[in-house]
Amino acid sequence: MPKITFLGAAGTVTGSKYLLDAGGKRLLVDCGLFQGPRLLTQRNWDPPPIPPDSIDWVLLTHAHIDHSGYLPRLVSGGYRGPIYSNSATRELCSLLLPDSAYLQEEDAKYATKKGYSSHKPPLPLYTVKEAQTALTQFLDIPRAGAFTISPEFSIVVHDAGHILGSSWLEMTVTENGKQTLIVYSGDVGRYNEPILKDPEPPSRADYLLCESTYGDRDHPAGSVADELADVINTTVKRGGVIVIPAFAVDRTQTLLYFVGQLMIQKRIPGMPVYVDSPMAINVTGFYNRHEEDHRAEFVKLEQEGDRDPLNLKHVQLTRTVDESKAINDVTAPCIIISASGMATGGRVLHHLAKRLPDARNSVLLVGYQAEGTGGRALQDGTKFLNIHGAQIPVRAQVVNIGQLSAHAGKSELLRWLSGFKSAPKQTFLVHGEPVALQSLKDAVTSQYHWPVTIPEYKQTIDLGG
Ligand SMILES: [Zn+2]
Fold first, then answer.
1. H/E/C letters for each residue in 422-451?
2. Disulfide-capable partner of 440 in 73, 156, 215, 255 (CB 3.0 to 4.6 Å)?
3. What is the 406 CA–ligand 1 centroid distance (Å)?
4. Ligand 1 centre from 63 Cα, in Å?
5. d(Cα 130, Cα 187) in Å, to the nearest integer?
6. Sign, CA torsion 326/327/328/332
7. How far is the CA of 418 from the centre of ligand 1 (A)?
8. Residues surrounding ion ligand 1 at CB below 5 Å
9. Are the CB atoms for 171 and 181 separated by under 8 Å?
10. If you measure from the C-alpha of residue 67 to the centroid of ligand 1, how many angstroms do you get, rounded to a whole number?
11. Percentage of the chain with pLDDT > 70?
């Protein structure tokens, strides 16, 4: 009978990898990197639990590194088959995988300099060259609908509304003439987002794998546009500058949408908006181009508004370091959107170093700020932030807008699950921290009365009966 093995994002939120075995063939669904504490990232370095060359196909739900970032390692370990994804996911991976490799190489260099590492000499997990090699194995699949991988595996792809190209999957596994339908949620997005479509509802499954990132909480209610307008107008009145650390993928584009619409509606004054991140600029191009992912309201704005709903004609995209440095000379009110989203690195650190000491300015935090990051320190009200070895006094106003997240909150996950017309034989909750997994399990059990399992790392389960 077919089997599933949980090779990542089981009991944790990163490292998504699910191996399906049927008829002597192997399909790996997602190939994510473990991130966060050392105990988890060590798994990226361990010998793979199954030989990479024993896998026949890889299929991706979306481009986020915790779903794609192990690919270069899989390929350098001997995987030679295709990596199936839609074209938007392939394009995002063409930026994210080399970037991930670059960070690995920088970490190795830093470890060499500081003389700490379990490897001598310190090695990167993979190199930019290895990431480029993995990219040559990508093969495009349709954005929506059915495609067949082999007699054992056929797939129907649905929009998950999480980031550009993100999908959830209906996978029909055939063994000895018997079919089993496995649904995998990928990462479920938000409802009523401005650019991307709502997550498509599921309808049936024999077995369900559902993510649980926000299985224990909802995002704050309230209007993002109102809160943004408030922060921007208050800051402009003080003659200050607004710095927004933002993820290059999805958060930057959503912010551009809200800021653009506020300007068009004259709810905030016209002022320069800088997107200071080469990756965010490229990703914004992808977001504009992939119309198949745009929701109807966004398409309507595109048709009415000169094809520019993000108001990009008023946005200054700064690619070079010199252009980035030139923003330091801007003294009039402006908005600076820059990566990284949790102020852990990247150009935003220079902007924070420059703008934090001035009480006229504001720093706007959007989305989750993990423990130990600069963003979290600001959120917690630190009086000084260590940037590039200097203690920078924090006098700027710090505001957190928690609604902006690409992940479904608890009630949105339950709404997505409500699409099922009948109970799956078994629901596996994955991609969550233990508290979130347990909380979602309790909710699904009490609300839908489905059998729910929280699988463990490397656990194999028969999908029969
Ligand atoms: Zn994701």
1. CCCCEEEEECCCHHHHHHHHHHHHHHHCCC
2. 215
3. 8
4. 7
5. 26
6. positive
7. 21
8. 64, 187
9. yes
10. 7
11. 98
Angstrom CA distances, 3 to 63, 228, 258, 300, 443, stand at 25, 48, 45, 45, 27
Q: What is the pLDDT of residues 5-31, one digit of tens each?
A: 999 999 999 999 999 999 999 999 999
Cis previous bond, 340, omega within 30: yes
Cα–Cα distances in angstroms (integers) from residue 463 to residues 21, 149, 176, 184, in the given order:
10, 19, 13, 14
Q: What's the CA gap between 53 and 75, in Å, rounded?
A: 9
Tens-digit pLDDT profile for residues 145-180: 999 999 999 999 999 999 999 999 999 999 999 999
Span 312-366, pLDDT tens digits: 888 999 999 999 999 999 999 999 999 988 898 889 999 999 999 999 999 999 9
State the average pLDDT over residues 173-193: 96
pTM: 0.94
The whole-number pLDDT of residue 196 equals 97
How confident is residue 248, by pLDDT bands cut at 50, 70 and 90? very high
**Residue 112: predicted pLDDT:** 80
Of the candidates 69, 22, 10, the one whose C-alpha atom is nearest the C-alpha of residue 44 is: 69
What is the distance of C-alpha 265 from the center of its chain? 30
Copy the structure tokens of residue 369. Answer: 């700020």
280 closest CA partner among 320, 340, 225: 340
Residues 109 and 116: beta-carbon distance below 8 Å: no
User: What is the 166 CA–ligand 1 centroid distance (Å)?
Assistant: 8
Interval between CA 212 and ligand 1 midpoint (Å):
12
Nearest CA-CA partner of 348 in 399, 401, 276, 292: 276
| Helix, strand or coil, per DSSP, at residue 15 | coil
Residue 189 has pLDDT above 90, yes or no: yes
How far does residue 358's CA lie from ligand 1's centre (Å)?
35
CA of 65 to the centre of ligand 1 (A): 8
Residue 192 CA to ligand 1 center (angstroms) comes to 18
Question: Virtual CA dihedral for 419, 423, 428, 433, nearest 10 degrees?
Answer: 60
| 404 C-alpha to ligand 1 centroid (Å) | 14
